[in-house]
Amino acid sequence: MFTRRLAKALSRAAAGQQPARNLTVSAPRQHKVAVVGAAGGIGQPLSLLLKMQKGVTDLRLYDLAPVTPGVAADISHINRPAKVTGFTGEGQLHDCLAGCDVVVVPAGVPRKPGMTRDDLFNVNASIVANIAKASAKACPNASLLIISNPVNSTVPIVAEVLKKAGVYDRRKLFGVTTLDVVRANTFVAENQKMDVTKVNVPVIGGHAGITILPLLSQVPGAKFSQQDKEALTHRIMFGGDEVVKAKAGAGSATLSMAYAGAIFTEYVLRALSGEKGIKACTYIESEQVKGLRFFASPVELGRNGVESVPALPKLDDFEQGKFGEMQKELAGSIQKGIEFAQKNA
Questions:
Q1: How far is 201 from 182, CA to CA, in rounded Å?
Q2: For residue 16, is pLDDT > 90?
Q3: Which 8-state DSSP code applies to residue 218?
Q4: Is 207 a catalytic residue?
């Protein structure tokens, strides 16, 4: 009973990102999904949630940590159909990724108290670049879902590595920003006394601090004071800091990120299976904003990844001001990732 309820909850999650009810759905397909970084604080609960998704039939878990086969054995005992296999060590990464349809990447070092996302960059950039190189060889047609922070820079790194390998398809490279939407929906529902399962707050920009911009003006029926706008926007932008502080140095946003990662993976899998009308916010390469090669916004997903990128809605004066503040920082993060990849690829 619990597993059925949780599976249903996942499919209903982030209500505003759900597609319309009148959908064209083809027969379910079987998908091979890999989680790279599966033994970590995000990777383990994410792997658990993916095991429970009916679109996943072959779940492959990889991490350098020797405990990974144990994590796979543990999750394999859950009475859901997906076959689970654990891989560990650099020599097994290719075998893990071979032929996968979707690769979810939470690998890397988590943020610690006092650590900026620039600090994270120095550690995680090489990790993500190596995963991209392996993916280019083992599963060149896979959709890559990047969770590893700082996403504003790691996604451009992956793009450059795949370009050099000659297999880059920007429709299939995603920065997972779903946690920003999940937080926005939660915080707005609390503020407006709304049903949290029916709130949908589009979140655009990037996935760090002031580059995260929730579009509160796009929430139907909501009425925000200026104080509400400022407080909610700041809390959504810096929600990760709230968790790091609350855990008193013992961790960062792992459980909520795993939940958000599972939601976005489900969207990608449903679109791969032919379901129409799947819409979600994600950080991708696009021409949506001049001067920003990568940008997070609502997109429509299909069998080949991103099918369309709708124009941004009109921003109110408050949002327009925040939009102006984000651009320089986001542009710098993007360039930092590109330069790293070009120097180290």
A1: 9
A2: no
A3: G
A4: yes
Residue type, 27: A
Question: Per the structure block, which two tokens stand in for 126?
Answer: 């090489």
Q: Are strands 56-63 and 83-88 parallel, antiparallel or unpaired?
A: parallel
Q: Which tokens sit at 97? A: 């990724």
Q: Which domains does the chain have, with CATH numbers?
A: 28-345 (3.90.110.10)
Residue 50 structure tokens = 């993916």
Residue in the block written with tokens 């690829």: 345
Encode pLDDT of 144-199 as tens digits.
999 999 999 999 999 999 999 999 999 999 999 999 999 999 999 999 999 999 99
**Tokens 């390469």 belong to which residue?**
285
Give me the catalytic one of 31, 77, 94, 207. 207
CA–CA distance, 242 with 259 (Å, rounded to integer): 17
Q: How far is CA 109 from the centre of its chain?
A: 16
Report pTM: 0.91
Q: Where are the beta strands (DSSP E) in the chain?
A: 31-36, 56-63, 83-88, 102-105, 143-146, 173-175, 203-205, 212-214, 278-289, 292-302, 305-308
pLDDT at 108 exceeding the cut of 60: yes
